[in-house]
Amino acid sequence: MARILILEDDTTFAQLLEGFLSKNMHEITLVTSVKQSFKLIENQEFDLLLLDYRLPDGIGVEVLAHSRNLGLSIPVIIMTSFNDVRTAVKSMQMGAFDYITKPVNPDELLMVIKNSLTKKESKNTEVKETDADFIKGKSAIADKLYEHIDLVAPTDMSVIIQGESGTGKEFAARTLHQQSKRAKRPFIAIDCGSLSKDLAASELFGHVKGAFTGALNDKKGQFEVADGGTLFLDEVGNLSYEVQIKLLRALQERVIQPLGSSKQIPVNVRIITATNDDLSNSMQQGAFREDLYHRLNEFKIQLPALRDRGGDLELFINHFIQLSNRDLERNVKSISSEAKSLLLNYDWPGNLRELSNVIKRMVLLTPGDVAQVTALPDEMMISVHQQIAPGGTSDLKAVNEQNEKTLIAETLIKVKHNKSKAAKMLNIDRKTLYAKMERYGIE
Ligand SMILES: Nc1ncnc2c1ncn2[C@@H]1O[C@H](COP(=O)(O)OP(=O)(O)OP(=O)(O)O)[C@@H](O)[C@H]1O
């Protein structure tokens, strides 16, 4: 059982969620505004925040940011319409655990909740390396990537891994560790995006009892825990200036000093960092220290976006189908050509993470052995058609049909699939709407 705060302004949907999750033994608190959520997380304890993305008085991500400022590391799941996926992807950079697209599929929701609660338990502890869930890809760009990884892994150089959200930066960091001389020592991953300023220093360097309000016991810092091994700092650009100074000192002098202590503890740690944005820009703007940047950037690895990986996309699709079949006890053997074309033409702003989520959902919604396009989010189709349409063809009829299809699909989403409302908005009668939906294969 988990204590879950749900922030959702659509009260009917919120009550549905509440009923469903209560039945699954969770304790639910419902709120409809960002302001109310602020108050609640300041005064009550929750195990999970389930936040709608768009709200009348703000966006769910503000609650995520507020929880981090309060020093809380509760997992956060953002609920979003597919049109907002790009923005939801950004919320992952701010420390959201995951996002789920509406309309929410109940089994998918339970799966994401379960994952986020178990991840919380194992957060920042030594990660068990399991290779079976990962593949490398066979494109030229993947070959180059692994050539670089193989080259730098055995050295003790500090590495910056740069890449869009969800491109597999943590996996790359773990591979570097596994191929290094430190492989038998700990690999510790720290998500700097989810740590407040105060927490970050104590998490990295530890503290002694009484060092600050709330420091009830001595706590070992992760530098000490990772001694002899590798420390992976994800979203390193989020560290405050003061913590950056402490980090630089730890790297230069190879000693750390827990908060509130005068003791110097020697440490031997290899640092791998990851960032979504170009740290050299943050450096030029003064948000990231130049000396630290150069100390961290002894070698840079650029992770390619999924859309740039050519034939790897298909390999990853098949790989994630196999994993989802195993995890969800399904038996999907192939995908219809329409579904495949959609998967191959979409631009995947959330990269491997988004692909893995979309495939998991597709497999979940496929009881038989062939996955159909109906198991993919409607909005993915809209997004692909919007990409392809401009300037793609000079066939006026095809363009008109495409526009009509997109408009119908978008309107249906807007009115939550209420056909009467959609027909009214489109200024056609219901019968015509049904006929067009059938013609265009819109569910
Ligand atoms: N080579 C791979 N093979 C299979 N799955 C992968 C691979 N690399 C990453 N993934 C999957 O993609 C998802 C995102 O990976 P990861 O967390 O490493 O990305 P990231 O770039 O660190 O993300 P973020 O920028 O949000 O921190 C995870 O679910 C991971 O399991």
Automatic annotation (TrEMBL):
Gene Ontology molecular function: ATP binding; sequence-specific DNA binding
Keywords: ATP-binding, DNA-binding, Nucleotide-binding, Phosphoprotein, Transcription, Transcription regulation
Domain Response regulatory: 3-117
Record-level GO BP terms: phosphorelay signal transduction system; regulation of DNA-templated transcription
CDD domains (UniProt xref): AAA (cd00009)
Pfam families for this protein: AAA_lid_14, HTH_8, Response_reg, Sigma54_activat
Record InterPro entries: AAA+_ATPase, AAA_lid_NorR, CheY-like_superfamily, Homeodomain-like_sf, HTH_Fis, P-loop_NTPase, Sig_transdc_resp-reg_receiver, Sigma_54_int
Domain Sigma-54 factor interaction, first and last residues per copy: 135-364
SMART domains, per the entry: AAA, REC
Modified sites of kind 4-aspartylphosphate: D52
PANTHER family linked: PROPIONATE CATABOLISM OPERON REGULATORY PROTEIN, TRANSCRIPTIONAL REGULATORY PROTEIN
Name of the protein this chain belongs to: Sigma-54-dependent Fis family transcriptional regulator
